[in-house]
Amino acid sequence: MNLDEIYRETILDHNQSPRNYGHLDHPTKVVGLLNPTCGDQIQLELLLQDGKIQDIRFSGQGCSISMASASMMTEAIKGKTIEEALALTSNFKNFVTGGTSQIPLGDLEALHGVSQFPSRVKCATLAHNAFEKAMAEPSE
Ligand code: FES
Ligand code: FES
């Protein structure tokens, strides 16, 4: 198996068994974001406590790239501090537009090929942009 096949398998695996898909009983923050290029939408539910992402779920409809990326992101940021999570989303966005990441991205690295397809970058970054939007909104 070469690297590309491993990456393909990783994306397929997140599509077939998305991690953290669904809803939280008592989220402290809920955010939705639309990908205007296709009309697909993602929703994130977060349980924030002591500056950490104690729990996270995502739901919505989208292409396989957007769903895999959301699944990978939830896995990568669960249990992290908000600062660590924001560092991850910003490094991922840099990585997926052809730049480099300063930190390990875990399964998200499987999405490196997306940088060659600008229309797909919006798909791959939908969940990450939703998370950043949630963090930019004031808490109740
Ligand atoms: Fe998102 Fe084609 S996969 S525009
Ligand atoms: Fe809609 Fe990818 S085509 S999120």
From TrEMBL:
Any one GO MF term held by the record is: iron-sulfur cluster binding
Give the matching InterPro entries: NIF_FeS_clus_asmbl_NifU_N
Gene3D superfamilies (UniProt xref): 3.90.1010.10
Q: Which residues form the NIF system FeS cluster assembly NifU N-terminal domain?
A: 7-123
The species this protein belongs to is Sulfobacillus thermosulfidooxidans
GO BP, sorted A to Z:
iron-sulfur cluster assembly
The organism's lineage? Bacteria, Bacillati, Bacillota, Clostridia, Eubacteriales
What's the short name of a Pfam family annotated to this entry?
A: NifU_N
What is the name of the protein in this document? SUF system NifU family Fe-S cluster assembly protein
Q: Which family does it belong to?
A: Belongs to the NifU family.
